[in-house]
Structures are given as C-alpha cells and as structure tokens.
Amino acid sequence: MSSVSIGFSAVRSLDHSCFAPLYSLSSSPSKSYFWPEAVGGVFRRWKDGGSGRLLVLASAAVEESDPGMDYAETNWKDQFQKDFERRFDLPHLTDLFSDLTPIPSTFRLKKRSPSSDDYVNGYLYREQYNGYINNDDRVLLKVIHRAGPRKEIFFRPGDVNAAIVTCGGLCPGLNDVIRQIVITLEMYGVKKIVGIPHGYRGFSAEEPEIPLSRKAVQTIHLSGGSILGVSRGGPDIEEIVNSIQARGINMLFVLGGDGTHAGANAMHKECNKRRIKVAVVGVPKTIDNDILYMDRTFGFDTAVEEAQRAINSAYIEAHSAYHGIGIVKLMGRSSGFIAMHASLASGQVDVCLIPEEPFTLHGPNGVLRHLRYLVQTKGSAVVCVAEGAGQDLLEKATGTDASGNKILSDIGIHVVQETRKYFKEIGVPADVKYIDPTYMIRAVRANAADGILCTVLGQNAVHGAFAGFSGITVGVVNTHYAYFPIPEVISHPRLVDTNSRMWHRCLTSTGQPDFI
Ligand SMILES: Nc1ncnc2c1ncn2[C@@H]1O[C@H](COP(=O)(O)OP(=O)(O)OP(=O)(O)O)[C@@H](O)[C@H]1O
Ligand SMILES: O=P(O)(O)OC[C@H]1O[C@](O)(CO)[C@@H](O)[C@@H]1O
Ligand SMILES: [Mg+2]
User: What does this protein do, in the record's words (predicted)?
Assistant: First the structure.
C-alpha cells in the first residue's frame, strides 16, 4: 500500500497514544487497510473501479462515505467535508415548526472572567466558568455538532414535561445518567419529570410513572442497575407515541443500546409525522462498546475493570491447579471489546477469542493443541472468550429474545466441554475451571471514570433537548462531547478491527498464534 500524507493536524484523544495525520491519499484497493486508532478523522482515498471512494475514520469507527459521490475532482476534500457535514446535520424542532423562536436560556452560566460577585468570603467560586455552545460549533474537523448548553433554548421550562426511560440490558452507570438528567432539568427550571418503568413496556401503562426530583435521585448512583427498571420487547411505536401524547411528554430521554435507539428514532419520526413538539434524545448504553464513532460508551470501563477481576481469579485457579486451565466467558454479542481490553488489562490471558476473529478448536492449528502446549510448558493456561465468538463452530441456537435479538449458542460451555474431552482423549491431565461473570459485571455500580462520563452525557442530553434537537444521541468523540443523528451511530455495530494496533497489542500480550 502506498500512502501520501497531504495534511496534518494534531488532535489528541484519550483513547489513543498518537497525534495523527488528517488526510492521507492512498492507492490501496483494499478495504482492510485502515487506521482505526488514528484520531481526529483520517481521510483515505483509493481507486475503486474508476470512481474514487473515501473512508473517514473517527475514533476507531470506519464509515464509508456516500459511494454515489464523485470525489475524483481535485477539491475532493471539500466535497467530502460537505457530504460528511450533510450526513451529520442534526434534526431540529424548527425543521417541523419553522415559526418556533428561541428564548434566552434559563441554564445560568457564570462569566468567564470573575467579578467581585463571584467571591464569597474571599474565595472564588468558579465551578461553572464555561461558555454557551454555538450551534455552529463542531468537533472532529468541525463537522459534528458540539454538545453543551446553548444561549437560546426552544422550551419554556414551565411547559416541559420530561420523561426518562431505560431499555435493553443493565449497564453500570444507568442511575448516574438518570440522576444527572434530573439534576440538569431542574437547573433549567423544569418541575415535571417522570421515569417510565421497565423500558418501553412502561408506555403500555401497566405500572405508574415514577416521579423524579433532585431529592429522589440524590444517591441513586451509589448502586448499580436502574431505579426505573429495564426490559426487552414491548409495545409498537404507534402505541408508544400514543402514550407519549396522552401523557403530554415533550422531552423524552432514552437510555439504551442500538435497539433502544432504533426505537427512539422511530418515535422521533412518528412525532414529526403527527406534528407534535417532542424532543427525543438518546444516551447510548452498552457495556459492549459497540456504538459507532464514540471513544467509548458508559459502562464499558467498569465492565473491563470487573472482567479483569474474573480473569485474574481464573488465572489464580489455573495457576494453583495441576495443569490448570481457566476459561472465562465475557459479554460481547457482536464485538469483542470487553474481551480484548480485559485481556490486555489482566495480562494473564493466553488465548483471547472474539467474534471478529475466526478460529478453530481442533486440528494442528486449533486452540486445543495450543492449550496442550501451554499446560506442558508453563503448567497452566487462561482463555478469555467473548460470547459472540466462534458461533460458526456451534449448533445454531434458534429463536430470538423479546426484542428480536438472535439468541446465541453458548461458546463458553462449548470450549469447556471440548477442552475436557480433548485432554481426556490425549491422556494428558487437565483441571478445567469455568467462570462466567456476565451478570456480575453488568450489575455493579459505575466506576469513577464511568461516573464522570455519565455525568457529562446526562447533562449534555438535557442541553440537546433544550437546544431543540430531536432524534439525536450524545457521545464522546476524540475527547469532545458531541451530538449525533441517531441513524448514523446505529447503522451497524462497531467492531474490533483485527488489523488494528490494539488487537495486535492484545495478541502480543497473550502470545497466541493464529488459530486457522
Ligand atoms: N428496530 C427497532 N425499532 C423499534 N424498537 C426497537 C427496535 N429494536 C429494538 N427495539 C426496542 O428497543 C428496546 C431495547 O432493545 P434491545 O433489547 O435490543 O436492547 P438494546 O437497546 O439494543 O440494548 P442492549 O445493548 O442491552 O442489547 C426494546 O424494547 C425493543 O422492543
Ligand atoms: O441476558 P440479557 O439481559 O438478554 O443480555 C445479554 C446481552 O447484553 C449485552 O451485554 C448487551 O448489553 C450483550 O452482549 C448480551 O448478549
Ligand atoms: Mg442491542
């Protein structure tokens, strides 16, 4: 692959260890060459059957630009930027209600330069020295909308009827986000805030709404779970929007994964169709970290921390046993981020198996043969397997859960059974210990890093709704908080790039060969 850099920008990201070139021209026809760890957006272009195509890489997410666009002209950079800008334009209430006029924000910010009023007993209180965000402010090459409080807002706080709903599986930090949404709504002057019980099912009105106030949420972040409850499945979009209308909800905060966001976007569209003024704002929740564009989603950091505890226990068990083999199954239906990061964090994993990397168990290049080598050379081995890994090796499970997600076959149990069988067959003793910490990981409270992330996301969700956006979600990209149109972030799950430096670091740490 030949590649020519034509411009640089120093963009720093917490996730990444480098400063990255911004634009790069490449003649590689292969889609597999990308730099998922490059930051700030790396533009790479190659010839594809005569028409130029372009990739933008944003914080480990790879997005193909509109293939219909002709980037062959010399001003491809401008064209690309315009195309990207168009795709990331945010739906706004004024798209529907053109006569809406904003009012000065009720969210008070202190001035940047302190005045004598800001001193109390000689101390300067400057915790809110911050500025309002301009609607033109963008992050990542100035195309993605910056999150934060706007000077003008589109709701009178007295008219706001806000609701919060948490859907899908549990995730550390849900209570932190709920808490911060409530606190921020109150800071704007909102009085009517409720929680919808048990996810979208709560819209079918079997259970009463949960009244929320600063007092009610003050300490909820001290425990895991969601005080509102969660669920999968539930009523269809029309029924949900009927319920939104009947309850008079005009700000809806939706905390959930890709399914929840698909629902939120459908609700936003249905509200538009009915011409009702409702701001639907999502906060992505997934311990799997499988949402596009975001540096990370809340709960992921905590999940990794908990997961590496399970791995360390597996190591101690395996290491203490004669020919011990510790096998740990971690969550990750389509993406192996938890398994990869926990393996790296622990440093004790010999084999890390993720959905993105095919492998065989049997045969000369299989996992089992390598385990035999490990127990015979170092005395023990640890395997970390993501739940979505190796599904092609298993008998297909049939059916879906209440939300329509495919039920996966259990790769953890399969690896355990096959390992026991293999060692018995070859007459080598092996003491196999299995740990599945799945729900222990999900149910814990958020750690400090996630607590901060949840706080900022919760605040920004409220700022986004007051700013008049709807059908959007909030995330952190290249360390900046930004708003995204929902369809862009859920178009497909974010996957571990097996050509990335991070996956290679993981392989270096485990020392595992290719199992193909
Ligand atoms: N395409 C869709 N359109 C409308 N609603 C959906 C869609 N997919 C899922 N939902 C609804 O969203 C809710 C949550 O979906 P799901 O159970 O798939 O969890 P999720 O949000 O993807 O979170 P998790 O990461 O835990 O799987 C459910 O109530 C489900 O009915
Ligand atoms: O057992 P539940 O609640 O359906 O959740 C399992 C799913 O949750 C996830 O962690 C996503 O939140 C997936 O990786 C996993 O398949
Ligand atoms: Mg999902």
Answer: Catalyzes the phosphorylation of D-fructose 6-phosphate to fructose 1,6-bisphosphate by ATP, the first committing step of glycolysis.
